[in-house]
Task: structure prediction
Amino acid sequence: MTATHSRPAPPRPAHTMRQGWAAGLTVFAAVMLFLAGLLSLFRGIMAIAEDDVFVTTPHYVFEFDLTGWGWIHLALGIVAMVISAGLFRAALWARVTGVAVAGLVIIANFLSLPYYPVWSVVMITISGFIVWALCVGGRDALYGPGGERASRQE
Result:
């Protein structure tokens, strides 16, 4: 019986691993933004149809008509789904607008908290993860592993 010894694979450079994490977080954010947009779209349709799922809260400071909230969530959902397509292409505009739209989703869900409390908290949490992933995951795409500005050819 003979023993064969194989050489261990050379370690991957740290910047390659960071780029892998950056790409993974961008894909995570794209998928989550698409799902958040789709769920917001459905929530908007339910509100426009005046579904009985929503709670009515009298004397709320940010009181809107349920149909008004429905149109807001519907529009945010459509925009979020379009931006997620740009994130799959790793477009810088999609990363920046993705953070902005996820922030708007957080604000809209906070303001509509009394109408659908549990789901609003879930959407705020999902949108928080989206903002985190887009902000953390894109650093190595914009800056090289040493922090220097990376040149991009598109």
In short: The longest helix spans residues 14-48. DSSP finds five helices and no strands in the chain. Confidence is low (pLDDT under 50) at residues 142-154.
